[in-house]
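Let us walk through a complete example step by step. Step one is to write down the protein sequence. Step two is to encode the small molecule, uracil, as a SMILES string so that its atoms and bonds are unambiguous. Step three, shown after the inputs, is the structure prediction itself.
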Amino acid sequence: MDNVYHLDLNSKNIQGAKIALLPGDPFRSQIIAESISKTYGTGNERLAWKREYCSYLTEVSGQKILITSTGIGGPSASIAVDELAQLGIQTFIRVGTSGAIQEYIDIGDVIITTGAVRLDGASTHYAPIEYPAVANHEIIYSLIEGAKYSRIKYHVGITASSDTFYQGEERSDSFRKYTLRKFQGITKELQSLNVLNYEMEASTVLTLTASMGLKGGCITGVVNKRGMEKITEQCLKTGETHLIKAAIASLKYLTDLSG
Ligand SMILES: O=P(O)(O)O[C@H]1O[C@H](CO)[C@@H](O)[C@H]1O
Ligand SMILES: O=c1cc[nH]c(=O)[nH]1
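Step three: the predicted structure of the complex.
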């Protein structure tokens, strides 16, 4: 049985998994797998680690759950989603970190994305820019229930996905102090449009899944907010801990729906 080229997985070793969790950071795959094992009393095993793609297999309520990291940005996320779809995955949930741009959102809150502003390039290789990057309603519901159960403050709304962390998200600590004209004022505009946060993969994951007739969703833990561009170890830890707790709790609701 041939392995898919980048993920180094095949349809046999994923054992019929239909649900995949997609962190950006490959080291988050193991943390998520071990947290699932601890919460649900099931085992986990590492299946592959090639480039930025680190995959673990575990189980919740009798359903196999695959965890595969996407790396940073749309191009690598598109490869992960495409190759997982080739292997039969039907439900894709990004489990990431993000930066809040609304004042009322705090470090450690989680954001459940209903749709993403497509500031990326990769998603346009799968569907024209007029096509909406929207999340599946069952996944949104499960993520909300997971956050409620975990008693973690959550927000539900629109996320902006950028191709670049520094220039595209209009960061003041970019090495080149000049921000390109096309990005000057973008944060203010997105704030006025009620966009909640910046990250880098949701628009790709949601455009690909919706346009391919699959289910996509996204939950992110807030690790910084405007006015404090530096991401401290403590902020990252709080954001990731809450993120993983809420995402894992949501699996109970998701597997009930798809079981
Ligand atoms: O923490 P992850 O899931 O990688 O998500 C966010 O972190 C990276 C940037 O630091 C980007 O991938 C962004 O989307
Ligand atoms: O501000 C942030 C934080 C995490 N990831 C991003 O892309 N932006």
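Step four is interpretation. The chain has a mean pLDDT of 97.
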